[in-house]
Design brief:
The structure holds two protein chains of two kinds. Chain A is α/β, with parallel strands linked by helices. Chain A contains 16 helices and 21 strands. In chain B, strand 1 (about 1-5), helix 1 (about 10-20) and strand 2 form a beta-alpha-beta unit. The chains are: A alpha/beta, B alpha/beta. At the A-B interface, helix 3, strand 5 and helix 7 of A face strand 12 of B.
Chain lengths: ~500, ~240
């Protein structure tokens, strides 16, 4: 039926004077957009298959290609936008739940962009980070409430296990299955070099990557895929995944189609069988139950590893975080509604959850008020896009941040939001060997290291500008932030003043 | 080694078990201590009393014998080994279990065998002597669950919603009555001789532990539940 025909969203513009019909674009496109027409000796393309991933544009040796919006529109309507109309046609045709990838792209407020950072002038001199030592080293874990001494007055060590980070930035959880072997290798190697951590997601840990264990956070989610004693002991910390910012309240289905080869082995399920992570952990219906899982993991690892509980930022996040802080967990990770995903129902991704900025401020405030902020460290994620976002997050109360979309961008992701198709032309969100090998792990690792190194410089520059030489002194230091164009209510929740105040 | 667990905190008890060099540990006066035998291998445990939640979580090869009943989440994410329970088991017995065996002489609670899964030669097995609660084998992705219904006089030995979301593995129910209201992706039929032969070993082990004649039990009517697809959600989505 013609109703579900859409004019292509993108138009591939090929400059005939530049194109030399070398067929690179054809070889590079897993979506089979480009082809060579023998009769005319020219390249032709089917724009309808294009996802705008820019692989062909980036590799065209003569810069003959660009991708532009095709400009085809339905009759203009602010209520029934083109997207809403197309989604109905798709569902009318299929009866399916709309499936999307990566973070919520809609036009919601980005509070990071409405917060400004302070700098010193005259009275409190700024510091030059190139000349003076700056401390960005961060420890995540419970902080002791008292100093313990023995009868001779000597200190008795009573520090709970900590994660030590050179920078307050970790790579967020992305499973082997959602992303490729090569992408995982890049994350692991970069984490090792920089002195931080990457996160397995819930797909288990590939046997080749056990050697990066001291820079690995292993995840335990409701499906318990690949979870066994060696796995738990392989990492530096264990993360219990309760929720994810892109899809709070629902589980995950990795289709059997993607359970091939190593993925099947790493998840420890048969090839071709769906990997279903139920929406809840079926042994966790309360904070007391969460406490039980936290302690069973601590028992399994002899109390040597911090346990992280990752939740999605939702309406009552402050109260939930208070419960998590009392569950015995060492670290809470909060994932905002802009967080990425390899696949999520569109409606959930675009409508469920709250912005990380508000969630983070509310949680930090609540834990302080209850006097339990030291019980737990806070990692926030869900769209940290640059070093300024990191500085603002730390000043709002985070101990560290998770980055994942930013890390994938450093590996070559162009945010075409088509991860769920498994045809990632950049070798990241795919398991097809011919695509995976496109991601050169040496180059990818170097790119990640470059990005984190650059962010590190920028963070110390901003800290120095504020006259702060230790990340500890920035944490929760909301006086260093001002809002711009925010309502009183928003300022109150963020716990910051308006610019000019 | 014998441990008197009376009024002992679970942390102390479990540290003692971990540190002990003996190949067998006997725990007396056990009362509610959680996480006993977590991730344990190379060491067997005999428990006299009532262990708490998450007994044998991530168990990795040890044998645990319970002269009494267990509470919730026995054998949570168990990898290998054996748990033998002379009394009843609580809810979520064998949650996400991926290897080893659990034998319960009496009954087991809700969500028994939830999200059990198998991989290659690792096939988890749960055999329940009596009856089980609702949601037996929910999300089951592999492994074998046998409910013998001993003492149930041929009545169906399960609660409601058996096999919800099941997409792998097998459930055997000894019953004269076919379970009703099963989800559409679960096939139910009377077990054949060949079907029964596949679980003969497990039922024999059950009887070796608790008594009874495996051949006589298996001679009676069993229903076999299996999923008709490994991909229950294949048709659910449309790319957007």
């Amino acid at each position: 039926m013609a109703v579900d025909y859409f004019y292509p969203e993108y138009e591939i513009v090929r400059d005939p004077n530049r194109c030399i019909a070398c067929r690179v674009c054809e070889r590079q496109c897993a979506n089979k957009v480009h082809s060579y027409d023998e009769a005319s000796g020219k390249m032709v393309c089917d724009d309808a298959k294009c996802v705008n991933c820019h692989r062909c544009v980036a590799l065209c040796p003569t810069r003959a290609l660009k991708i532009v919006p095709s400009g085809d529109t339905f009759k203009s309507n602010s209520n029934w936008t083109d997207n809403y109309m197309k989604e109905i046609y798709r569902q009318a045709n299929s009866g399916g739940v709309l499936l999307s990838s990566m973070g919520n792209p809609d036009n919601f407020p980005v509070y990071w962009d409405k917060i400004l950072i302070n700098a010193s002038q005259v009275t409190n001199p700024s510091i030059d980070p190139l000349r003076e030592p700056m401390e960005t080293r961060t420890f995540l874990g419970k902080k002791p409430t008292h100093v313990k001494r023995d009868s001779n007055g000597r200190l008795v060590p009573n520090l709970e296990p900590q994660l030590e980070l050179a920078l307050p930035i970790l790579f967020g959880g992305m499973s082997y299955g959602a992303i490729s072997y090569n992408a995982h290798e890049c994350l692991a190697r970069a984490a090792e070099t920089i002195g931080t951590f990457y996160n397995t997601g819930e797909g288990g840990l590939h046997k080749d990557f056990y050697k990066y264990g001291k820079n690995t956070i292993v995840q335990v989610a409701s499906g318990r895929f690949g979870v066994h004693k060696d796995y738990l002991n392989a990492g530096a910390a264990i993360e219990i995944k309760i929720g994810q910012g892109a899809k709070p309240g629902i589980g995950g289905h990795l289709p059997g189609l993607k359970i091939v080869g190593d993925i099947s082995q790493t998840r420890m399920i048969p090839m071709g069988s769906d990997a279903i992570s139920p929406a809840p952990h079926h042994d966790i219906y309360s904070i007391e139950d969460l406490h039980q899982l936290v302690y069973s993991l601590k028992e399994a690892t002899n109390y040597e590893k911090p346990v992280i509980v990752k939740i999605a930022a939702v309406h009552n996040v402050a109260a939930i975080a208070s419960g998590v802080a009392r569950s015995g967990a060492d670290i809470i990770a909060i994932d905002g509604f802009r967080g990425g995903t390899g696949a999520a129902p569109t409606r959930i991704r675009d409508n469920v959850g709250i912005p990380i900025e508000l969630a983070l401020a509310a949680v930090d405030q609540r834990l302080r008020e209850e006097g339990i902020r030291g019980n737990i460290s806070i990692i926030c994620g869900g769209s940290i896009r640059n070093s300024a976002d990191v500085v603002k997050a730390i000043a709002l109360g985070a101990d560290a941040v998770y980055i994942a979309t930013a890390a994938l961008l450093a590996l070559g992701c162009h945010l075409c939001r088509s991860c769920h198709t498994g045809n990632c032309n950049w070798g990241i969100a795919t398991q097809k060997p011919e695509l995976v090998k496109r991601l050169n792990t040496d180059v990818g690792t170097e790119h990640l290291i470059n990005m984190l190194t650059a962010w590190g410089h920028e963070i110390t520059e901003m800290m120095g500008g504020m006259g702060i030489n230790s990340i500890e002194a920035l944490r929760g230091n909301r006086l260093m932030l001002r809002g711009i164009g925010l309502t009183d209510r928003e300022l109150a929740i963020l716990g910051i003043k308006h610019a000019g105040e | 080694m014998n441990i008197n667990a009376k009024a002992m905190h679970f942390k102390d008890l479990n540290a003692k078990i971990r540190e002990c060099d003996d190949s067998q540990v006997v725990i007396d006066n056990c009362l509610g201590q959680r996480y006993i035998g977590t991730g344990l291998n190379h060491k067997d445990i005999i428990i006299n009393g009532l262990p708490g939640n998450a007994l044998g979580a991530y168990l990795d090869g040890s044998k645990i014998i319970v002269n009494g009943s267990t509470q919730e989440a026995t054998g949570d994410t168990m990898n290998e080994g054996e748990i033998v329970i002379y009394g009843n088991a609580g809810d979520a017995t064998g949650y996400a279990m991926r290897g080893g065996k659990i034998f319960v002489r009496g009954n087991s609670g809700y969500r028994t065998g939830i999200h059990m899964k198998e991989y290659q030669d690792k096939i988890p097995v749960i055999v329940i002597g009596g009856r089980v609660g609702s949601f037996l084998g929910e999300y089951q992705a592999g492994g074998v669950i046998v409910v013998l219904g001993i003492g149930e006089a041929g009545e169906l030995p399960v609660g409601y919603f058996t096999g919800t979301g099941m997409h792998g593995g097998k459930i055997f129910l000894r019953s004269d009555h076919e379970p009703q209201g099963l989800p559409p992706q679960v096939i139910c039929r009377v077990a054949t001789k060949k079907d029964k032969a596949a679980v003969m070993g497990y039922v024999s082990e059950f009887c070796a532990n608790f008594g009874g004649d495996p051949a006589e039990l298996l001679n009676q009517k069993f229903y076999l539940l299996m999923p008709n697809t490994a991909n229950p959600y294949k048709q659910l989505y449309v790319n957007n």
